[in-house]
Amino acid sequence: MAKAKRTQKPEPVVKPVEPELTSLSPSWWWAGCVVVTAVGAFLRLYKLGLKPFHHDEGVNGFFMTSLVRQGVYHYNPKDYHGPSLYYFALASTKLFGLNGMALRLTPVVFGLATIVLVLCLRRYIGAVGALSAGLLLAVSPGAIYISRYFIHETLFVFFTLVIVVALLRWHRTTNVTYLIAAAASAALLFATKETAFISIGVLVIAGLMVAGLAIAQADRKVLRREGVTGFVRGHLARDLERFGGATGLAVQLFAAVSAFVIVYVVFFSSFFTHRTGVLDSFKAYTLWGQTGTKEHTTNGWYAYLWWSRKSEFPLFVIGGIGALLAVWSRRNLTAIFIALWAWGMFAAYTLIPYKTPWLALNFVIPLALVSGVAFDWLGHGTANREGKVIAGTLLLAATLFCGYWAIQLNFYHYDDDDYPYVYAHSKREMLALVDEINKYAAKSEGTESGIIFCSPDYWPLPWYLRDYTRVGFYGKISPPGNSAIMIGRSDQREELDTMLLGRYRMTGEFPLRPGVVLLLYVRNDLVEGGEPPK
Prior knowledge:
Strand content: 5-15%
Number of helices: 21
Oligomer: single chain
Order of helices and strands: HHHHHHHHHHHHHHHHHHHEHEEHEE
Low-confidence stretches: 1-16
Shape: elongated
Distance between the termini: 125 Å
Mean pLDDT: 89
């Protein structure tokens, strides 16, 4: 008698527990998106030319002038960041001309795009979480201030966020377009600032920790039967199947690597006009490694916390709550990843001796996101009324706090070193010096007037005097010849007075930045009623 075959019962498929996230009706969601984006746009665009160019903006403006007028830009790894800022700014200069508003419009656009990307994370942190994070970012004093600067940081954090959003969507949809977008953004991240390896490193570590947590949360019976190795192998096999097997995944990875290489080479080679730029990009890490241990190292390990007292302090508090809630509930692995990203970036930049306020933007973005996690947890559908009241009160208080300091910083105290993010900034009185130079040059030979800078400190003035053809930035006392204007530093006054006596008159003193005062000397025949220097 034949024995009946014993059939093995298939293992039940255990679906991961989905996190409880808030949802809103389409009308409320889109209304919230419009309000958040509009607030962010207004605070970034209003009086965009109010504050004078910073030293670094002047240097970037110098490179931009060369690119626009001569069509030349060559990456220099010694003292300057990557090329992406200049090539993206070409679009605004084509539309609006070579001026400060056009240059600053580029980081403004990327700052707004960052807010939009935050809203795109609704599926992962909930509708209330995404809107809350977007609002906190829209009114963030630092995010606004840096978005109104023609420097690299706003583009840098945008590309970082693109990597995160694109990889999340690629993992969910297996659409190769998202993987290519993530790879291209990674290349642009490196083409923006040399600190890209810090951001990539933190993201990789956060991703590996979340993967380890996913294994730890797996079914204990399956782990005991298959072991960790077998369990991981099984999950990898299922993931491979989703991507079309090993061949399909290899094709996608090849496309991503190709996108990275192409974008990287195109930008660093200045669109194939400067081949050595690609090799120079690797030299930068040695040079900037030395800079990171020597310059801007006097602010102390607590610098970012100290600077936050008048800016993003609520993000540290609520972001800490959000991180604790994400780890405690362990239901939303994406939220845990964002928490690790936020606090990992904060830890990395706290440990690095080199500290400047604009670097804080690297963790302000994920802190806003993990704060959104806290608000969504308090306000999701199963929460009681008290939780929603607490969430609303906290969000209102954080918005008012950040909004107040955003207005104070960006529209009143934008050159006051007592405020965070104002770091060796040009004084507003510097613009009066530019007006005086233009006034006296108009009495001489216009833009062909001779102008000599004896002061070793003069940035960002080369940007403001970009239309003058006979400007000499000597950085030391030099004979005036027949120049219309001489500009020195306050500690050079005695020597300048002796050399220029009888031929030039000092017409004013103008603060350039904290600790630096410039003296304006004008040839006698251009001055009416001026007194000779004492």
